[in-house]
Amino acid sequence: MSFSSEVKDELAKNITKSRHCQIAELAAILKFDGKIVKGTNGEEVLEIVTENASLAKKSFTLIKKIFNISTEISQRTGNGLNKNHIYVITAAKKEQIEQILMTEKISCLTQQKECEQEMVNGLVVQNSCCKRAFIRGAFLSAGSMSDPEKSYHFEIVCPSLKWATQLQEIINDFDIEAKIATRKKHYIVYLKEGSYIVDILNVMEAHIALMNFENVRIIKEMRNSVNRQVNCETANIHKTVSAAVKQIEDIRFIEKNMGFFKLPENLKEIAYVRIEYPDAALKELGTYLHPPVGKSGVNHRLRKLSEMADEIRGYSKEEETYDKKISKDSTLNRF
User: Fold this and answer.
1) C-alpha angle 256/261/267, rounded to 5°?
2) Whole-angstrom Cα distance, residue 67 to residue 71?
3) How many Å separate Cα 261 from the centre of its chain?
4) Would you place residue 335 in the very low, low, confident or very high pLDDT band (cuts 50, 70, 90)?
5) 3 pLDDT exceeds 70?
6) By three-state DSSP, how is residue 163 classified?
7) How far apart are CA 256 and CA 22, in angstroms?
8) Residue 302's domain spans which residues?
9) 183 pairs with which residues across the strands?
10) What is the pLDDT of residues 146-189, one digit of tens each?
11) Smallest Cα–Cα separation from 140: which of 267, 30, 299, 269?
12) Residue 76: CB partners within 8 Å, gap ≥ 6?
C-alpha cells in the first residue's frame, strides 16, 4: 500500500462528532466526487462515485449520521486497463437529494461551468474545525501524497482556478503556504516543504501518518547531515593534503637550487619540520617548533618559503630564456 493510501485510510476512519464538521467534510466529498444524473426512470439521482472503498464507506456513514438517510452502495468494474472497482453511493428520492443539497448549501452538482464558480459556501467553513474537516474531505476525494522516502509532495487536484484559489485560502488560514500549479486542464494546490506537509497532516488529524512522516524526515535529515559533514571533512582533507604537497615541493626546490644554509633560522626550522611531518596539519606543525608557534605563524613561514621558491623559479626561467637567446644568436653568427 502506498503512503498516500495509508493516509487516506486513516482519514477515512476519522468520523468527527460535530455535525457542522461532518457537513463540511461531506461538502468537499460531494463537490469533488458527487454528481446529479438521470436514473432509469428519468428521475434525478444523487451519486458519489469513487475508487476508494474507505471513502465510499465514510460517505455512506456521514450521510447516515447527518441526515438519517440510508443510501445504497453498489460496485462496478471500471473501464481502465487496471479494471479497478468503482463504488457508487446513491440517493434516489427527490426530497432526500433536496435536503442534502440545501444543508450542504450546494446549488448544483453538474459539470457545467456555472457550478464551478464556488467550491464551498463560506457558511459551511466558518469555523476552524470545519475548515480542517473540509480539507480532509477534499484530500480524500482528490488528493495524493508522495512517499516521503523519495520526495516531499502533497497535492489536491481541482477542476477550476476558482476552486483551487478558494482551497488555497482555506489551507493558508492555518499558516501553511500552499501554491497553485496547472497540469493539463486541472489546477493543483500543492505543498513541497516537509514542514508544511507535517502541518497539513496535523490539520487533517492524520496523526499516525504524521508520526511516520516525521520519522522518515528525521532519518533523511540525519543522513543528509552526516553526508554533508563527511563531504566537508573530505574536502578539508583534500585541501590540507594538496597544500602540504605543494609546500614540500617548494621546500625541496629551494633545497636543490639554493640550499637551506642561506635560509633564515625560522624558515630553515619550519622547512625541516614540514619534510619530517608531511601529513601534519599547520597547528600540529607549530607544536614541533622551538619555541612552539601558532597556526598563523606556521602558515606565514610556509608562505614565505613558497614565495621564495616562486622567485627562484622566475630567475631560473629568465636564465633559461637568456641562454636560449644566446645560443640562437651564436648559431646565426656562424653563418
Assistant:
1) 90
2) 10
3) 62
4) very low
5) yes
6) helix
7) 89
8) 221-324
9) 186
10) 999 899 999 999 999 999 999 999 999 999 999 999 998 899 99
11) 30
12) 85, 86, 88
Domain count for the chain, please give it: 2
Q: How far apart are CA 61 and CA 15, in angstroms?
A: 9
Tell which residue, 2, 1, 3, has the closest CA to residue 209.
3
Q: Distances from the Cα of 318 to the Cαs of 285, 324, 328, in angstroms? A: 34, 10, 15
Beta bridge partners of 77: 85
Tell me: the pLDDT tens digits for 174-227?
999 999 999 988 999 999 999 999 999 999 999 999 999 999 988 888 888 888
Residue 173 CA, chain-centre distance (Å), reads 22
Distance (Å, rounded) from C-alpha 281 to C-alpha 255? 22
**Cβ 114 vs Cβ 162: under 8 Å:** no
Same domain, 150 and 34: yes
- Record the cell numbers describing residue 198, joined without a space: 507535517
Which residue in the block uniquely carries the three cell numbers 594538496?
A: 242
The residue among 184, 186, 179 whose CA lies nearest residue 160 is 186
Please check whether residues 118 and 236 belong to one and the same domain.
Answer: no
Taking the CA atoms of 37, 43, 47 and 49 in sequence, report the sign of the dihedral they define. negative
The HSE-up count of residue 160 (CA atoms within 13 Å, CB side) is 14
C-alpha cell at 328: 640562437
Shared domain check, 193 and 101: yes
In the block, cell 602540504 appears at 244
- Amino acid occupying residue 227: N
How many whole angstroms separate alpha carbon 65 and alpha carbon 22? 8
Pick from 170, 205, 240: which residue ends a domain?
205
